[in-house]
Amino acid sequence: MMRYLKIFYLYWKMRILQNLEYRFNYFIGVFIDLFWASITLISVDWIFGQVNLIAGWSKNEALLLACINMVFASLIWYFIIPSMDFLAESIHKGNLDFYLIRPINTRFLVSVSKFSSDQFIRIIVLGLLIFHFLNLLQITPSLLQWLGFLVLFVIGLLIFYGIFFLITTTTIWLINLSNIQFIFQVIVDAGAYPVDIFRNTLKLVFYYLIPLGFLATFPTQVLLGKGDWKLIGVGLLATLVILGISQWFWNFALKHYSSASS
Amino acid sequence: MRKYWAFYKAGLGKMFVYRGPMLLWVLGNILHVVMLVAVWLSVRSYGLIGGYTKNELITYAVISVFMPWIISWNPFSAIKREIKDGSIAGKILLKPVSYYLERLSWELAWHSMSIFIGLAAGLIAVAIFYRFLTVSIISPEFLFSLPALLLGGLIQYNLSFAMALFAFWFSEVEPLSGLKWMALAILGGSSIPIGFIPNSFQILIKILPFRYMFSFPIEIMMGKISGSQIFFGYLTGILWFGLLFVCCKILWSKGLKVYTAVGN
User: Fold this and answer.
1) Of the candidates A83, A81, A42, which has an alpha carbon nearest to the alpha carbon of residue A62?
2) How large is the C-alpha radius of gyration of chain A?
3) What ipTM did this prediction achieve?
4) Cβ-contact B188, B214 below 8 angstroms
C-alpha cells in the first residue's frame, strides 16, 4: 500500500514540476479555466433571468449545483481524464507493454500516469463560491451533512473513474479513440443539470445506467437538507459493481492486446 | 486547382481510417441534446423564454447538434503544430502552394464527411423529438439560411487561421483558441440562444463576428429575424469575412519574415 502511495506522490510531484517549468503557460491555463467556470455561472444566471425554476430548483440552488459539478469536473480533469487519454494513446501506439512489464498493478500505473495540475486554483475558487451560495441560501450544513456530502462526492468520483476506465479499455478493439475526452466532457457537463429534469425512460437511463446524480445532484441535495441518505448505500454498491466490472473487462481486454513497439 | 483536389482526396481518405471516434461523436452529441431538451421541458415558465417558446428552444437544441459539423471550420491545431514543429517549411514554403487554400482543402474534406456524422446525430434527435420541432427543411427560411451556414464556416476558418499564425511569434497560442470557443459559447449562441443575453449586450453581439459563426443561420432558419435584419446580418458577416481574410494575409507575410525552421 505504501509503495503505491509513494508512486502516486512521485507522479503527482513530477507533473507539478513539469507544469511549473513553463509558468506563464501554467497561469494562462489557470486563467482560461477560471474564465470557463465564470461563463458557466453566467449562463445559468442568464437562464434564470428568463425562468423561475428548473425542475424545482431555484437560481441559487442551481448555481450551487453548477459549482459543485465544476469542482467534480476539475477533479476528474486533474486526476482521471489525462491518464485515460494517455492510456488510449498508449494502446493506439502500441506502447502499453512498457507498463504491462512493470512489477506493479498495471491498472494503477496507467491510472496515475498523468495529471493536469492547472485545475488546482480553480478548485479553490469554486470551493469559496460554494460557501458563498450556501450563504445566499441561508443554509449552514451540519457536520453530518458535510460528511455525507464528501462521501457521496468521493463515491461519484470512483463511479465515474470506473465508467471512464471501461470506455477507455475499448480502445484495445477500436484502436483510435482520439476524441475520448469529448465523451468524458459531455458526461461530466451533464452533471451540471439536476437529475430531476428526467422523467420516464430517461430517468431509468440516467439513474441506473449512467448514474448522473452522483456527479453533483445527490451531494448537493445533502447540503441543501433534501438528501436521501439511502443513496450512500446504493452508491457504495454501485461503486463496487462498476469497479469490479471495469477490472474484469480490463483483464479480458488485455488478452486481445497486441503491441507495436517491443 | 488539381493540387488542392489531391489534398481534398487525401483528407477524405484519412477520415475513413478510424470509425471509433465517429461513434463517440454521435453518442456525445445525442447525449448533449437529450440533456438540453430535458432541461427545457422541465422549466416552469409561462410565455416566451428569451424570446423563444419551449418548442423553439427544443428545436434550437436539436439544430445545435449538427450545426458544428457543418459550420466549425477550424484549422487552428494543425497550423499551430506545423509552425511549431517546422514541418510547414518542407510541406508548404518550398512548394508553389497557397497554405490558406491547402488547409481549406483539408477542411472541406473533413466537412464533406463530418456532415454525415452530424446528420446521423441530428436524425436520431429529430426522430426522438419530432413532435416539438418548429422548423421545416422545405421552407423559404431554411433556404435563406444555407448561404449563412457557408458564410459562418468561412468566418470561423479565417478567424482560426489568423489566430494560429500567432505561432510564428509565440511559443504557446492555445489560449487564443480557448478564448475563441468561450466567445462562441457566450456571444455566438452555441451554449444558450443569444436571446437570453441581457439587452445591454445585444449591440455588441450584432457587431462582433461570433453570432455569424453559429446563431445567425439558426435565427434565419427559425424565422426569428426580419428580412432587413437578415440583409444587414449577411452584410456584417461578409465584412467580417473580408476583414479576417486581410488579417490572415498580413499575419502570414509578416510571420514568414521572422520564421525559422530546423530540419524538414
Assistant:
1) A42
2) 19
3) 0.82
4) yes
